[in-house]
Write a sequence for this structure.
């Protein structure tokens, strides 16, 4: 008998309705807001999908093989997912991340066996990405490059999008996602638009001066190559304060223990709901709140 492996546990995550936040207004308007619980993936985030996809497909193309060294710049969730995927498939994983990201993320990556290189806070993710490319050029390993790798959005086109369509019975009218690498929003948009061009795709972006883990507004020269602006109908800006407040509310009012970027997407979904009627609005709960405990976002 062939039993499933941890890799087989990725995807098919639950879709749940919000019951209290904005409930009265949504009932009056005939709207429903649904959260896709990607924190239920084995390594705790939506990034489990592209992490395994990028490694598996690189193997299929003969670009890498077990025992090789993989290098990736990450702000957290992709690094954790890649560390898990490397452990599953037998790779040495070197992750490069800014030093100011939460200690839970760094500890989780190390638990999966990854090696960490911390870069100066002042350089942000841009510096980390530059260093990863430099190390690859120097022959120190192979970059999967989540920001330019078509296998990132491809897995969301193949799995996340179809799951949402099936779980809503094709009734989804709006899809809201935080934008980091943009793999999730790009891949899901492609699938949903093929099913129904009227589905509205909304990207959550940080307002000026806000630092929200997992949501980025990239300088033009660092804009992910996988990003296709034509696949996003609208950008809505969320402040760090609103995202953190929603993070606490999701936990205390809905029992959904999500991360700050997930809460930012939820906040945007609430703004969308105030402008429409009879809508089925889905947002991505992209990870779990336990990897943000040291940030102080939750009450001590």
């Amino acid at each position: 008998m062939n039993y499933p492996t941890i890799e087989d546990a990725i995807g098919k995550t639950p879709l749940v309705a919000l019951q209290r936040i904005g409930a009265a207004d949504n009932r009056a308007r005939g709207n429903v807001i649904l959260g896709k619980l990607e924190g239920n993936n084995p390594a705790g985030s939506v990034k489990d999908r592209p992490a395994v996809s990028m490694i598996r497909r690189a193997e299929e193309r003969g670009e890498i093989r077990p025992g090789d060294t993989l290098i990736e710049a990450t702000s957290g969730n992709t690094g954790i997912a890649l560390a898990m995927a490397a452990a599953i498939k037998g790779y040495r994983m070197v992750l490069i991340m800014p030093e100011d990201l939460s200690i839970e993320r760094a500890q989780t990556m190390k638990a999966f066996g990854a090696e960490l290189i911390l870069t100066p806070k002042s350089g942000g993710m841009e510096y980390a990405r530059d260093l990863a490319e430099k190390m690859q050029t120097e022959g120190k390993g192979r970059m999967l490059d989540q920001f330019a790798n078509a296998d990132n959005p491809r897995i969301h086109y193949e799995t996340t999008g179809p799951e949402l369509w099936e779980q809503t019975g094709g009734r989804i009218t709006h899809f809201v996602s935080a934008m980091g690498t943009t793999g999730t929003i790009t891949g899901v948009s492609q699938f949903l638009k093929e099913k129904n061009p009227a589905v509205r795709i909304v990207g959550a972006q940080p307002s000026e001066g806000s630092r929200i883990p997992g949501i980025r507004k990239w300088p033009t020269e660092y804009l992910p190559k996988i990003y296709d602006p034509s696949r996003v109908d609208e950008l809505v800006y969320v402040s760090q304060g609103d995202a953190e407040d929603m993070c606490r509310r999701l936990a205390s009012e809905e029992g959904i223990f999500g991360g700050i970027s997930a809460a930012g997407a939820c906040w945007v979904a609430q703004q969308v709901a105030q402008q429409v009627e009879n809508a089925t609005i889905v947002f991505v709960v992209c990870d779990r709140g336990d990897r943000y405990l040291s940030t102080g976002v939750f009450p001590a």
Observations:
- The chain has nine helices and ten strands.
